[in-house]
Write a structure and sequence with these properties.
Blueprint (H helix, E strand, L loop, with lengths): L3 E10 L16 E2 L2 E2 H11 L2 E8 L3 H11 L9 E5 L6 H7 L1 H4 L4 E6 L7 H13 L4 E7 L8 E4 L5 E5 L6 H4 L3 E10 H9 L14 H8 L4 E5 L12 H21 L3 E2 L5 E3 L4 E2 L4 E2 L3 E4 L3 E2 L4 E2 L4 E3 L2 E2 L4 E2 L4 E3 L2 E2 L4 E2 L4 E2 L4 E2 L4 E2 L4 E3 L2 E2 L4 E2 L4 E3 L1 E3 L4 E2 L4 E3 L9 E3 L4 E2 L4 E3 L2 E3 L4 E2 L4 E2 L8 E2 L18
Parallel strand pairs: 1-4, 1-6, 4-5, 7-11, 12-15, 13-16, 14-17, 15-18, 16-19, 17-20, 18-21, 19-22, 20-23, 21-24, 22-25, 23-26, 24-27, 25-28, 26-29, 27-30, 28-31, 30-33, 32-35, 33-36, 34-37, 35-38, 36-39, 37-40, 39-41
Antiparallel strand pairs: 2-3, 6-10, 7-10, 8-9
Bound molecules: uridine-diphosphate-N-acetylglucosamine and calcium ion.
């Protein structure tokens, strides 16, 4: 999109967020794994404006610090101008604090910092409408089932915009109005500046309402229009924990629909937790109760059973993850099978066709192509080649109380059950390890190592047979 050289986007995020009842500033509360403010910044960036400003106030240092250090992970590369609002006396004061920035531009898009469900396409259409039918101000409205708490759009007899009346100041008639102010507005910058100078404190908290500027602009005989949006969920403002949970549910539902549109089968779309940026290939089947989070991508034709948790991982095509599998920061190549109840800890790599089964834990290890760790094992700091079979209950003893050490198991090694590898140790290709062995020295290629005491069978004295 062409840079909108006359447009500035201003995000208001200075409020106290009192109703969250939290020590964490409201903009930093997480929805589907990302702070609320990140959604606003991403949307602002997508509009390609000339400048993006964020008004901060409550816990401003923490908010600025977190935003600055997270921009890369949110893929926000546009420069952000932070404006500090020193006295938290309402959304009108927040915009006033940003005047030095705003007056450089013809048009200002103002977004409340607590509406993460807004869609870029909606804002684009609103901007287009504003360009085609210039006016002093335009407010985005929606009609909601429960308007309580929101500013109401009051229209005159001809249906034209009259004013926004805040919930706290609304009489019974106004409270009946279901059309609400979303907190997203486009302004002619000059008129906004003029209106801001005329604001007076209002309501029970003596606040300067940004919403009053629209009525004031109208009184200047400048047209104010309402841009109505059918999907009211886009305007959900997050003021309390219940609304935070509601936003999370709506975003997840949107993601579920997007996945299904891409050919993913969700057995119960209400019961999967898939983060926004996760990618999943067609014909993959996802059972209920799964968490697929962070920077994760999953290939085609996979089966992800219930209770599976995957975070920041890459899963190839045709992989089966059985119930209860837990995977973090790992790579699983095509046709692998994992679980039930297996754990891949960070920096694990399963090469194509590998199998990790029941109650096995893998940490910072490579499991080679087609190798199997099927039962009750712990494999840590290990380089395992292809075609290895690891017997039940095998443990790499990688920690000596001070340091971690590596185990190397080369191609086609056969490990019997209940073997301990005391690292650092290497087992060369085609070697075989007898069951119950504790391996402390290198095992040469093709050899058989047995490291356990021999069985002794003694006759029990003074006891008759079959006693
Ligand atoms: C606001 C609107 C209301 C609208 C609703 C939509 C006003 C007066 N009312 O109400 O008409 O229906 O949003 O969600 O704007 N903020 C500051 N500095 C302040 C106070 C607030 O930056 O001093 C920021 C907040 O961080 C927030 C936004 O402004 O992002 C709106 O403030 P909030 O207190 O949430 O307003 P609402 O009561 O929800
Ligand atoms: Ca709000």
């Amino acid at each position: 999109m062409v840079a909108k050289k006359n447009l500035c986007v201003l995000i208001l995020a200075a409020g106290k967020g009192t109703r969250m009842k939290s020590s964490l500033p409201k903009p930093l509360h997480s929805v589907c794994g990302f702070p609320i403010i990140s959604y606003l910044l991403k949307a602002a960036q997508a509009l390609n404006p000339a400048a993006i400003g964020v008004v901060v106030g409550h816990e401003s240092d923490q908010v600025i610090e977190t935003i600055k250090s997270s921009l890369t992970s949110w893929q926000v590369t546009a420069p952000i101008v932070f404006v500090k609002q020193t006295e938290l006396t309402g959304s009108g004061s927040a915009v006033k604090a940003a005047l030095p920035l705003l007056q450089k531009f013809e048009t200002v898009l103002i977004l409340n910092g607590d509406t993460p469900l807004l869609q870029v396409t909606t804002l684009e259409q609103m901007i287009k409408q504003f360009e085609e039918h210039p006016c002093g101000a335009m407010v985005l409205s929606v009609t909601v089932p429960n308007p309580s708490g929101y500013g109401r759009i009051v229209r005159g007899e001809t249906g034209k915009f009259e004013a926004i009346v805040e919930d706290a100041d609304a009489d019974l008639t106004v409270k009946q109005i279901a059309e609400i102010n979303s907190g997203m507005y486009l302004f002619n910058s000059k008129l906004l500046q003029m209106a801001l100078t005329q604001l007076s404190p209002q309501g029970p908290k003596n606040e300067y309402y940004l919403t009053d500027t629209l009525g004031l602009i109208k009184q200047m005989n400048q047209p104010v229009s309402v841009y109505e949006v059918p999907d009211f969920t886009e305007a959900l403002g997050i003021n309390c924990r219940a609304q935070l949970a509601e936003a999370e549910q709506i975003l997840r539902a949107r993601k579920a629909v997007a996945l299904m549109d891409d050919g993913v089968a969700l057995i119960n779309p209400q019961d999967v937790y898939v983060d926004e940026q996760v990618q999943i290939g067609a014909d993959t089947v996802i059972y209920p109760g799964t968490y697929i989070l962070g920077n994760t991508s999953i290939g085609k034709n996979c089966v992800i059973e219930g209770g599976v948790y995957i975070k920041d991982s890459t899963i190839g095509d045709n992989v089966t993850l059985k119930m209860g599998t837990y995977i973090e920061e790992s790579t699983v190549e095509e046709t692998c099978q994992i679980g039930p109840y297996a754990h891949l800890r960070p920096q694990s790599v399963l090469k194509a066709g590998a199998k990790v089964g029941n109650f096995s834990e893998i940490k910072k290890s490579v499991i080679g192509e087609g190798s199997k760790v099927n039962h009750l094992s712990y494999i840590g700091d290990t380089q395992m080649g292809a075609g290895v079979n690891v017997g039940a209950g095998t443990i790499t003893c990688n920690y000596d109380g001070k340091n971690k050490h590596q185990t190397i198991i080369e191609d086609h090694v056969f490990v019997g059950s209940n073997v301990n590898f005391v690292a650092p140790v290497s087992v060369r290709e085609y070697a075989k390890i007898g069951a119950g062995s504790t391996i402390t020295k290198e095992v040469p290629a093709g050899s058989l190592a047995i490291a356990r005491s021999r069985q002794v069978v003694l006759e029990k004295k003074g006891v008759k047979k079959n006693d």
